[in-house]
Amino acid sequence: MSVWKAFSKSIYSFKHIGMFRMLPIGKAISHLFLLLFITSLPAIIYTSMMTSSLSEVVPKALNDFSNELVIKNGQLESTKEKVEIDGWTIKVDPLVELEETSSDSRKLILSNDSVHIFDGNNKPVQTFSYQLLGGNVTGDQISQYLESEKATFWIMLGIFFSIYYLFMTFLAFIKVTIFSWITTLIGTFSKRTIPFRFAFRIATYSLTIPTLLYMIFDMLQWVPPSIIGLAIQYGLYLLVITLSVNTLPKPKHKQTKAALN
């Protein structure tokens, strides 16, 4: 069975998830890499679009400021000001007062010591310290730097995405390993003996449904607070594992003994 076919089956069929325990371990590992690649795509695309937009908007905004933007020793020395360009609100504001900006625009807030990026729902996306710029710098220097280093930004972004993907995959392997032991316990409670190598495969394919649902909820901005969200995700993960384990046949001698009783 191909990796894509197994992936599609793991989205809706608990019986197939149970059957996948017999697949080679390489298939399970490939499935995990594929799952993490798919679920990483929205974040990669969103970050790429935002980075591209910012690289175009920031130089325009700096040119539109009536006063020269100056950073000395990591501190902003400019008066309060705001401009709106191409769906972005870019504002010099020491107090980071989001209530004054339009609710449907993305925001770049320049506080005393940092740059704060927010999405259209005032959700923090990233914060950068002026110290990263080093020493003293002006708005014109920032504009010139952004124009000259566009190609470098995309290379750095590619490296960042690669590290992000590998890190998320590493965390997924840890999660699957932990839940593999839980899968063996669920098998014991349900009168089924599941070796760890089979439990690992079941836990791997059971991760598909909760991970995809969480990705969809995140894209639709339906994600609850972190602790509740994790509880829902792990609870759903356990439910999928349990339903998949329950599709496995019980040992025949157990069934015979139960029939005699």
UniProtKB/TrEMBL annotation:
**Which named protein is this?**
DUF1189 domain-containing protein
Q: Does the keyword Membrane apply?
A: yes
Which residues are listed as membrane-spanning?
Answer: 153-186, 198-217, 223-245
**Xref: InterPro entries:** DUF1189 (IPR009574)
Keyword annotations of the record: Membrane, Transmembrane, Transmembrane helix
Extract the Pfam families matched here: DUF1189
